[in-house]
Amino acid sequence: MSPNGQPLYEGKAKILYPGPEDGTLIQYFKDDATAFNAQKKDSIIGKGVLNNYISAHLLPAVGEIGIPHHLLGRMSHREQLIKQVEIIPIEVIVRNVAAGSICKRLGLEEGEKLDETLVEFCLKDDSLGDPVIAAEHIFALNKATPDELSQIVDMTLRINDFMQGLFFGIGVRLIDFKLEFGRLETEEDIEIILADEISPDNCRLWDVSTNEKMDKDRFRRDLGGLIEAYSEIARRLGVNVPANALEA
After folding, report:
1. Lesser CB count within 10 Å: N end or C end of the chain?
2. What pLDDT does 170 receive?
C-alpha cells in the first residue's frame, strides 16, 4: 500500500509524498524496473522492498564516516522518512572497473580495472537521455557552484573508499555506482547532503569469486534472478528482510 495523500513527485523507481512534519517527505519504493532511459520497463515484485531495506542499511553506514544524508528512518517495508532537500540535477557516477555505457563510449573491455577511480557527471534530464557533462557545463548551466561540486566530489570519493571495503568484506566487488545530492536549508547555512538511495538498483555489484552480476544488470541483460541476487546482497550485508515483506 502507498501512503495517503497526493504524490509530490513520481520517478522511475520511487514516489515522494508529504511527510508528517514540515521539512520531511515519505519516500515510497516501487517495484518498477527500467533500463536504457526507460525504454525497457517491467515490474518485479519485491524489488522495491529489497531496495528500501538495503538503502536503509547503507545510508546510516556512510553516515558513520561523516557523510550527511537525507534518511531519517525506515517506516515500513516500502517507505522511508527522509529530509526534504532541493535535489541538485546531477547524477554522479563513480567507476572503479569498466562496465556499462563507458565501455561502448570509450572502447573499453568490460571488467577492465581502471588505473584510477573515475568520477563522471550526467545531467539529470530524462528527455535528453541524461547526457555526460563536464564540470564546466555544471557551472555554465548554474546547476552547482564550484564549492558545491568540490564538496560533492570529496564526499563521493569517501563513500567509494568506504563501500569498496564494505562490499569486499562480504565477497562483492563494487564495480560502479550512481549518487545524487541535495541542498538542505538549515538555520545557519545551506548544507550539501547525500540523497536518493544506495542499492543494487544504482550499484554494479559482482561476486568476487565468480564475477556473477548481483545488480540491475540482471534485468538489463535478461539474466533473470534479480530478486534472488538482491536478496543475496541483503543476506551478506546482514539485512533481515522478512519473507512475507517481498509480497507486500
Report:
1. N
2. 98
Asked if residue 183 and residue 154 are part of one domain, the reply reads yes
Based on the fold, state whether residues 231 and 144 are members of the same structural domain. no
**Residue that is written with C-alpha cell 555489484 in the block:** 205
Residue 143's pLDDT band, with cuts at 50, 70 and 90, is: very high
Question: Does an H or E element contain 73, and which?
Answer: strand 71-74
- Supply the range of the domain harboring residue 243: 9-85+225-247
- Given a contact cutoff of 8 angstroms between Cβ atoms, the answer to whether 50 and 13 are in contact is no
Three-state DSSP at 25 gives strand
Other CB atoms within 10 A of residue 229 CB: 23
- What total of structural domains would you count in the chain? 2
Distance between CA atoms of residues 246 and 201, nearest Å: 16
Residue 75 is placed in which grid cell? 517506516
